[in-house]
Amino acid sequence: MTPMRLRHSLCIVGILALGAGPASLAAQAPASDRHIDSLLARMTLEEKLGQLNQLSVDQQPTAEQVELVRKGPGGQSV
Predict the structure, then answer these.
(1) Which site among 3, 8, 48, 71 is 20 to 30 Å from 14 CA-CA?
(2) Which run of H or of E encompasses 76?
């Protein structure tokens, strides 16, 4: 297994584990936590994995890099 595939597999396991908590805890969570949980529930796995990526760009990102960030697979740029 390549290091990248292992990293993605561990991320998937972590995301699934975080979403498997008891429902009673969600009812006790503050509004901001419920909002975050709702957002994560609506995101696709590809979008969640994309948020883990950081594109390294020099002062001016290319149109392709901007599009990757906008669509989600590129996560964010630094």
Answers:
(1) 71
(2) strand 76-77
3-state SS class at 54: strand
Cβ–Cβ under 8 Å, residues 37 and 26? yes
Q: Give the residue carrying structure tokens 């969640």.
A: 48
Rounded to an integer, what distance in angstroms lies between the CA atom of residue 45 and that of residue 40?
Answer: 9
Write phi, then psi, for 44 (nearest 5 degrees): -80, 165
Number of independent structural domains in the chain = 2
Residue 15 amino acid letter: I
CA of residue 2 relative to chain centroid, distance: 21
7-56 pLDDT, tens digit per residue, is: 777 777 677 666 655 555 555 678 888 899 999 999 888 888 877 877 77
Verify that 57 and 70 share a domain, yes or no: yes
